[in-house]
Design brief:
The protein has about 110 residues and is an all-alpha fold. It is built from five helices and no strands. It starts with 8 loop residues before the first helix and ends in an 8-residue tail after the last helix.
Length: about 110
């Protein structure tokens, strides 16, 4: 693997977290737009339609992140471990935290 293509894990994690925060912000904007349209009970404006097109970008981004994390997982050797309880301790959604703490074989397709 070429030196220019490697990155420390903390950089990979930071970049991934940034991507997810961006998705979170985009969904918030979309949620506000959808609520405005529903409350108004009228057709969306052209500006709102442009915002709603972000659903497709979010969908594509989530798909890309899934592929990225699958590819990262394949690079991990069986001797590498992580403190999953520590990594998930700040996740506020209980069901998400529980899913993240499950063993990998439960998620094999």
């Amino acid at each position: 693997m070429a030196e220019g293509h490697t990155k420390p894990l903390d950089t990979v994690y930071a970049n991934s977290a940034r991507e997810m925060r961006q998705l979170q912000a985009q969904v918030r904007v979309l949620e506000d737009s959808v609520l405005d349209i529903i409350e108004r009970q009228s057709r969306p404006t052209s500006e709102e339609i442009k915002k709603l097109q972000d659903f497709d970008l979010i969908w594509q981004t989530l798909g890309g992140l899934s592929i990225f994390f699958d590819n990262l997982r394949e690079q991990v050797t069986t001797t590498d471990i992580t403190d999953i309880d520590r990594a998930t301790s700040s996740v506020t959604l209980q069901k998400l935290r529980d899913r993240l703490r499950e063993r990998g074989e439960m998620f094999e397709m």
